[in-house]
């Protein structure tokens, strides 16, 4: 790890006030279209997909419908599985991977699983290529009773109203060079602390939940994804992003305590994917396919273990 230069907004060791947050927000600009990239693809889905709007975000002149995809005919006897993308809007393959899965793959599982896909939880972050929402709040640290972020609140309310418990949740993310170049320095400046960068892993890895790690489940996903892209190797301290390696390509986080989307439910099977799009060994398409492979492997594992248990 190494210290990062001082961030250009705010004063060292002083948390941001509303003035600094306003300054930061004024520097953010639309760089792509949520409507064109996400909404239009959702609208083009076939009759086997029920689209539900679970919320609406209004940020200044922009309004964003929050969309959920319920795939197939839902029945109480089938397990309910949740796929989420775009909690961090800038993590492109999470959004596109969720959409690709819904478009091309999900129907294959619809007879045996109640599938729920939330392809882009943070549309403003998607458009401005940001980790935060406009209030400089990280939605992926906001799945908490304190309810800090509107993006997270809408998801929590929607999932709480589900008729059956979630059996599996896979949350699609990326780790990027911009984490060290922009987002971690901005976080340190916002909170008035000293920034310490972590080593960015070159390759795919998983973040399991500390209180329900399910090593065999994680291992099955790693094995499937390895057929599509390379798996990240641990650093010299046997860590990935500062966390001890639990098994090849897997670290653990305290999901509920940290307010991560991964901790949203009490699903027995839960994981967060991390793709590295800046690798010289990766392409945009490759990253999307890695996300899809992870989703498929997670569902296959659920079905296989259910069959084995009788």
UniProtKB/TrEMBL annotation:
Entry annotation: catalytic residues: 274
Alphabetical list of CDD domains matching this protein: M14_REP34-like
InterPro entries membership: AstE_AspA_cat (IPR055438), Peptidase_M14 (IPR000834)
Keyword annotations from UniProtKB, A to Z: Hydrolase, Metal-binding, Zinc
Cofactor names: Zn(2+)
Domain Peptidase M14 as annotated: residue spans: 28-302
Domain of life from the UniProt record: Bacteria
Family: Belongs to the peptidase M14 family.
Name under which the protein is recorded: M14 family metallocarboxypeptidase
Organism: Simiduia curdlanivorans
């Amino acid at each position: 790890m190494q210290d990062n230069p001082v961030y250009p907004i705010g004063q060292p060791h002083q948390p941001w006030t509303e003035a600094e947050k306003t300054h930061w927000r004024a520097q953010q600009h639309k760089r792509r279209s949520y409507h064109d990239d996400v909404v239009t693809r959702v609208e083009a889905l076939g009759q086997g997909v029920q689209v539900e709007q679970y919320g609406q975000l209004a940020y200044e002149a922009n309004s964003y419908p929050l969309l959920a995809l319920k795939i197939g005919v839902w029945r109480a006897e089938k397990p309910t599985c949740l796929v989420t993308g775009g909690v961090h809007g800038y993590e492109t393959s999470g959004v596109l991977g969720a959409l690709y899965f819904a478009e091309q793959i999900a129907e294959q599982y619809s007879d045996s699983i109640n599938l729920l896909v939330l392809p882009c939880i943070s549309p403003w972050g998607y458009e401005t290529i940001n980790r935060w929402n406009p209030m400089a709040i990280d939605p992926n640290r906001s799945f908490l009773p304190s309810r800090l972020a509107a993006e997270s609140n809408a998801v929590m309310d929607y999932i709480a109203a589900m008729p059956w418990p979630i059996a599996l949740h896979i949350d699609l993310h990326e780790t990027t060079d911009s984490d060290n170049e922009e987002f971690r320095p901005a976080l340190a400046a916002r909170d008035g602390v000293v920034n310490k960068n972590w080593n960015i892993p070159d390759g795919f890895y998983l973040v399991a939940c500390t209180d329900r790690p399910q090593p065999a489940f994680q291992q099955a996903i790693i094995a499937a994804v390895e057929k599509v892209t390379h798996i990240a190797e641990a650093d010299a301290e046997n860590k990935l992003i500062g966390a001890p390696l639990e098994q090849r390509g897997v670290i653990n986080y305290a999901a509920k305590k940290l307010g991560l989307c991964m901790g949203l439910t009490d699903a027995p099977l839960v994981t967060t994917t991390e793709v590295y799009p800046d690798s010289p060994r990766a392409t945009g398409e490759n990253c999307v396919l890695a996300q899809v492979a992870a989703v498929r492997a997670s569902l296959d594992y659920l079905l296989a273990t259910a069959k084995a248990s009788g």
